[in-house]
Amino acid sequence: VLSVHAVNGDVQLLRADRFAAERKTGPPYHALAQPPRAEGEATGRVIDLAAIAGQEVYIVHVTCDDAVERIAAAPARGGRVRGETCPQYLLLDDSLYELPDFEGAKYVLSPPLRKKEDQAALWNALATDQISVVGTDHCAFSFKGQKEMGRDDFRLIPNGLLGIEERMALLFTHGVREGRIDASRWVELCCTNPARIYG
Predict the structure, then answer these.
(1) Which of 27, 32, 56, 159 would bridge with 97, disulfide CB 3.0–4.6 Å?
(2) pLDDT > 90 in the chain, percent
(3) Pairing state between β 81-85 and 2-5
(4) Is the sign of the CA dihedral 140, 87, 120, 85 positive or negative?
């Protein structure tokens, strides 16, 4: 299984440089430099290239409806793909980038947080097996001395959030207890499916 973080780096770099040249340097521009449509495009491109190569692909860190649509459509086009999302994309949204006093920098990660509508699409994709895994990496930074390095330029904010320790409890609380998924699906998403996918 080929694991891919589907990002259109050219779009991201060009938009980030343009925002910086326009002196748009705060945390919200981190997200605006990486629009959902670019993630969807990159996801579709990876799926198509993997299908041409006869390769199964595992898309990590799926954040938006556009990417979910590409994953859902893949089998009809001969693609073998599994998607993974993370707790932060299910529970946090891009309004956090607007927090005052540079607090939004605490939520800078890639891909960035998306809209609440994307959260709804992800929850639906988990319930219908369009997204097969809830995983995460753990990439924590201190606000003081680290995230603050990008105070004058969002491109210098270290990207990442913590997440490993909280993953299963968050999915149980906001998935099982709120009726979005049942307990069996919770176990599949966090444990069984990753084990099957990776043998």
Answers:
(1) 27
(2) 91
(3) unpaired
(4) positive
Contact 62, 83 (CB under 8 A): yes
What is the secondary structure of 170-188 as a DSSP string? HHIIIIITTTSS-HHHHHI
Cβ contact 106:147 at 8 Å: yes
Our CA angle for 178, 180, 184, nearest 5°, is 105
Kindly report the backbone phi and psi dihedral angles of residue 84, in degrees, each rounded to the nearest multiple of 5, phi listed first. Answer: -130, 135
pTM reported for the whole predicted model: 0.95
Both tokens of 198, joined, read 């990776």
Q: Is 176 left (phi over 0), alpha (psi -120 to 50) or beta?
A: alpha
**What are the pLDDT digits (tens) for 62-112?**
999 999 999 999 999 888 999 999 999 999 999 999 999 999 999 999 999
